[in-house]
Amino acid sequence: MRIVLIGPPGAGKGTQCLRLAEELHVTHLSTGEVLRAARAAGEPVGVAAGEFLDVGKLVPDDLVLQLVAERLRDNDHEQGYLFDGFPRTRNQAEALDYLLAERETPLTAAIELVAPTDELLRRLSQRGRSDDTDATIRERLRQYDELTAPMSGYYAERGVLARVDAVGTVDEVFKLVTEAISGLAKKQQAAAG
Ligand code: AMP
């Protein structure tokens, strides 16, 4: 299974992804974590990404795509993937489709976590990550609305999107997400005959 989880900062993507990766036995690929690790390790791509991470701006597509393509190549025999925080732009979504088509393993499901802005701000103010300042939080929410949210339209057109209410407990949201994934996986199997 190839699953994309999208949602604004504070929607609980990270928490849900950890549980999903364990339950579905797929490789969890968080581009945010990969970028932070590449930076900490002093890799050129990570260092180049650093100036964007510091101000909460999206890292340019070519840097992100380079990292994702490398990870897919390194894990050529993996059963499946859970993409966390990727794609974040339509261009990245198209590039991912291309990478997956090359491997003959199309996307199974795109899950969009949905929560009201007040709730997101409340959660983010409690998280305390070093790049969670008021200014970077506001900038990330703005960028999400501008660049990422319209991407759900891209996946809706392809019939792989499910929108999930992210306001419940972790368990409640997890149940909704897994139900949505199995529904989309069945639909894909039926279409493949
Ligand atoms: P995250 O851990 O997903 O909240 O990402 C943290 C930061 O990493 C974001 O604010 C961006 O600067 C950068 N980032 C992560 N994933 C991507 C992506 N797919 N495209 C561009 N920038 C990204």
Features:
193 residues; single chain; alpha/beta; 61% helix; binds adenosine monophosphate; 9 helices; 5-stranded parallel β-sheet; 5 strands
Radius of gyration: 16 Å
User: Strand order within the widest sheet?
Assistant: 2-3-1-4-5
Structural class: alpha/beta
What would the average pLDDT be, to the nearest integer? 91
Structure in words:
This protein has helices at residues 13-24, 31-40, 44-55, 61-74, 90-102, 117-127, 134-148, 151-157, 170-192, and strands spanning 2-6, 27-30, 81-84, 109-114, 161-165. The protein is an alpha/beta fold and 193 residues long. It has a five-stranded parallel sheet with strand order 2-3-1-4-5, sandwiched between helices. Helix 4 (61-74) packs parallel to helix 5 (90-102). The longest helix is centred in the C-terminal third of the chain and has 23 residues, at 170-192. It is globular. The structure holds adenosine monophosphate. The site of adenosine monophosphate has 17 residues, from helix 2 and helix 3.
Topology:
Blueprint: E1 2-6, H1 13-24, E2 27-30, H2 31-40, H3 44-55, H4 61-74, E3 81-84, H5 90-102, E4 109-114, H6 117-127, H7 134-148, H8 151-157, E5 161-165, H9 170-192
Parallel strand pairs: 1-3, 1-4, 2-3, 4-5
Helix pairs in contact: 1-9, 2-3, 4-5
Residues 9, 31-32, 35, 52-53, 56-59, 64, 85-88, 92, 140 line the site of adenosine monophosphate.
Précis, in short:
By secondary structure, this protein is an alpha/beta fold.
